[in-house]
Specification:
Blueprint (H helix, E strand, L loop, with lengths): L4 E5 L3 H13 L3 E5 L2 H10 L4 E5 L7 H11 L4 E5 L4 H10 L3 E4 L4 H16 L9 E3 L2 E4 L4 E4 L2 E3 L3 H11 L6 E2 H9 L8 H14 L6 E4 L3 E4 L11
Parallel strand pairs: 1-2, 1-3, 3-4, 4-5
Antiparallel strand pairs: 6-7, 7-8, 8-9, 10-12, 11-12
Keywords: DNA-binding, Phosphoprotein, Transcription, Transcription regulation, Two-component regulatory system
Organism: Geosporobacter ferrireducens
GO molecular function: phosphorelay response regulator activity; transcription cis-regulatory region binding
Length: 234
């Protein structure tokens, strides 16, 4: 896993250098970008396994970079910001970010989060996962691909994991805490509203089939089939 390529995007040269030095010692291949424009160019030109993306940058900020990347790619993204307000974190998750680090952060915590994200996305677990078909929905586990009526639905890595986890056990109700533990991992530092944000995003992308994911009030969420012909909303 330490062969992973990571792009570090921050307009502060010292911050880029410190992160690059620390993660290089951890065995990762690190490249850097000094601004959003350079980051987008590098993402277009190369393949990365993870992006550490500063939010507050001149010209093109991290929010915009994250949104543009998500239009084309599911590369895991960890946002870096000096501001840790809750609404900013929720906004970042809405854009498709996978995790969040508030400056100043410890390099050890950064390394733990990087390792956790990469573990979820790089370990070859496709052989243990089976394809899922539920009405119009198909999940091809080996390729981490989701199809609705044979049309691909572009999900972020976290959205995919959440959908797959629910869909593999239809009718089973999971609490938000259980979903956090199973999908985000026990070392995730966050709250249950992270789950709600990703469920909302999933439903938006599923469109008329959003009722596959049902809310069980006071408990959590479950995956339920049989709504292929329902067009109305909850």
């Amino acid at each position: 896993m330490n062969e992973a390529r990571i792009l570090v995007v921050d307009d502060e040269e010292k911050m880029r250098h410190v992160i690059q030095l620390y993660l290089s010692k951890e065995g990762y291949a690190i490249e850097t970008a000094a601004n959003g424009r350079e980051a987008l160019e590098k993402v277009d030109e190369g393949k990365y396994d993870l992006i550490l993306l500063d939010v507050m940058m001149p010209e093109i900020d991290g929010w915009t970079v994250c949104r543009k990347i998500r239009q084309e790619s599911t590369i895991p993204i960890i946002l870096l910001t000096a501001r840790g307000e809750e609404y900013e974190k929720i906004f970042g998750f809405d854009l498709g970010a996978d995790d969040y680090l508030t400056k100043p952060f410890s390099l050890k915590e950064m390394a733990v989060r990087v390792r956790a994200v990469l573990k979820r996305y790089l370990e070859p677990n496709g052989k243990q996962q089976k394809d899922i078909k539920a009405g119009a929905l198909q999940i091809k586990a080996m390729y981490k691909q989701v199809l609705l009526e044979s049309q691909e639905v572009l999900l972020t890595p976290k959205e995919y994991e959440l959908l797959y986890f629910l869909a593999r056990s239809p009718q089973i109700v999971y609490s938000r805490e259980q979903l956090l533990n199973h999908v985000w991992g026990y070392d995730f530092i966050g709250d249950a509203r992270t789950v709600d944000t990703h469920i909302k995003q999933l439903r938006e992308k599923l469109g008329e089939y959003k009722k596959y994911i049902q809310t069980v009030w006071g408990t959590g969420y479950k995956f339920k089939v049989g709504y292929e012909n329902e067009k109305h909303t909850e």
